[in-house]
Specification:
Blueprint: H1 2-8, H2 13-20, H3 52-68, H4 72-86, H5 97-127, E1 131-135, H6 144-149, E2 153-154, H7 160-164, E3 175-179, H8 182-187, H9 228-235, H10 241-249, H11 253-272, E4 279-284, H12 287-295, E5 304-308, H13 309-316, H14 326-330, H15 332-337, E6 341-345, E7 352-357, E8 362-374, E9 377-389, H16 392-400, E10 405-408
Parallel strand pairs: 5-9
Antiparallel strand pairs: 1-2, 1-3, 4-5, 6-7, 6-10, 7-8, 8-9
Helix pairs in contact: 2-5, 3-4, 4-5, 11-13
Length: 411
């Protein structure tokens, strides 16, 4: 449909975030890659693609299509180049012009549509709309069931959305709009009085899914987007630093707010209970920070920035004369986002990034590639080890000690 194709060329933050959530797991598949469960919101797969380098190249090609809006023709060129370079044979559609065109279009459209609708789901949840309105795609040859749902307006918690939130099958271009009033429903193309057709919940015995919903499509892409930022955050330690930094930079503002709220709750619990070395990923190294670190020969293994409840206790302890406040610690995600300048200290065992917030008169200490064995697993992160009040003279003093500037400008 033309209007959807135009939308695909204009990716929005929630769509990019929903798509890049899949990049933390490139999942090989030997047969059909039907999206039979919501786990496809957390992984990238192409039916028949099993080699890691092939999957990585295909994921990169889709990433360019989603994030840069390069379009279908550019994706086809990328796909053909990857297939030839990686020697991939035996894939569905190979060997005929129509078959290859169908396969490339299926891969392109499925990833574009599901990431679009997952991102749209996040917007609808964050917008707190009273009603969600189902809109048919307007396809020239409509699926009659999909057409029968067109214009229906239901509350966001209605069971219909758990199984019928689009897309509802391969090539489905149906959409959902949000509304707060009956007039808003009409403006969105809906009918406030329209009811769901009888038997909308009936299962198709051939597929096990509701009639009109394709096999494996009876879930909402991104249906847990209210918590998506926590899932996105958990991907950071397993992504290479440049990818993780770019991934975090694409997080929508609503996701950052959810992370900030979740971290504030963590800080409150940590302040009241004995420390257990529990970690919380609060942010990510920025791409510009990575460039500055690389210029000094420091290449972090990942972009994750974490803090432990142990370190929160350390920063709050009453014995410290220059302790941080509970309010400052709770605001760490925002403080890191708006840091003014960072210096690198290479004199310690681990590279240490000293981050300053000049107006807030605060200094944070990050240990790069802090590594710890815990419960049989190795944790590698960039740890906020400590923090304390610091006047602007401290920034000048560090500059005088010869520490290289990683980002920002000294006052």
């Amino acid at each position: 449909m033309p209007e959807l194709a135009a939308t695909f060329r204009k990716p929005f933050a929630e769509q990019v975030a929903a798509w890049r959530l899949r990049l933390g797991e490139l999942r090989p598949t030997y047969g059909s890659a039907d999206p039979a469960y919501a786990g496809h919101d957390r992984a990238f797969m192409v039916a028949g693609a099993v080699k890691a380098d092939l999957l990585a190249d295909l994921a990169a090609a889709v990433d360019r299509a989603v994030v840069d809006g390069t379009g279908f023709e550019a994706f086809k060129q990328d796909f053909r180049s990857i297939v030839e370079r990686r020697g991939w044979h035996g894939w569905a559609g190979e060997g005929s012009v129509r078959g290859e065109e169908w396969r490339m279009r299926t891969i392109y459209r499925t990833n574009m549509q599901t990431s679009y609708m997952a991102g749209r789901h996040a917007q609808l949840v964050d917008g707190e709309y009273r009603w969600w309105v189902y809109r048919h795609s307007g396809a020239a040859h409509p699926r009659l069931n999909h057409l029968s749902w067109d214009g229906v307006a239901l509350p966001p918690d209605h069971p219909f959305w758990g199984t019928h939130y689009p897309p509802n099958g391969w090539g489905c271009g149906c959409l959902v709009e949000g509304a707060r009033t009956e007039a808003g429903i009409r403006r969105a193309g809906g009918d406030p009085g329209k009811k769901l057709p009888e038997g909308w919940q009936s299962a198709d015995p051939r597929t096990g899914t509701p009639v009109g919903v394709g096999k494996g499509w009876a879930h909402a892409p991104g249906d847990d987007q209210a918590q998506v930022v926590l899932a996105m955050r958990d991907k950071l330690p397993v992504l290479p630093a440049p990818i993780g930094a770019a991934f975090a930079a694409s997080w929508p503002e609503a996701a950052r707010r959810r992370l900030a709220r979740a971290f504030a709750d963590f800080v409150q619990r940590a302040a009241l209970a004995p420390p257990t070395k529990q970690y919380f990923e609060i942010a990510a190294l920025k791409p510009s920070w990575l460039e500055g670190l690389a210029a000094q020969g420091v290449l972090p293994k990942n972009a994750s920035i974490s803090i432990r409840d142990t370190d929160i206790h350390h920063m709050l302890r009453t014995a410290k004369t220059n302790q941080m406040t509970l309010e400052d610690i709770s605001a760490l995600p925002e403080l890191l986002e708006h840091a003014d300048v960072g210096y690198l200290d290479l004199q310690d065992r681990l590279p240490t990034l000293m981050v300053y917030l000049i107006e807030r008169q605060l200094k944070l200490i990050l240990k790069i590639d802090f590594t710890e064995r815990r419960r049989g697993a190795t944790i590698v992160t960039n740890l906020v080890r400590s923090g304390h009040p610091a006047r602007s003279t401290a920034v000048t003093a560090d500059l005088g000690r010869g520490f290289p500037v990683i980002f920002g400008k000294a006052p």
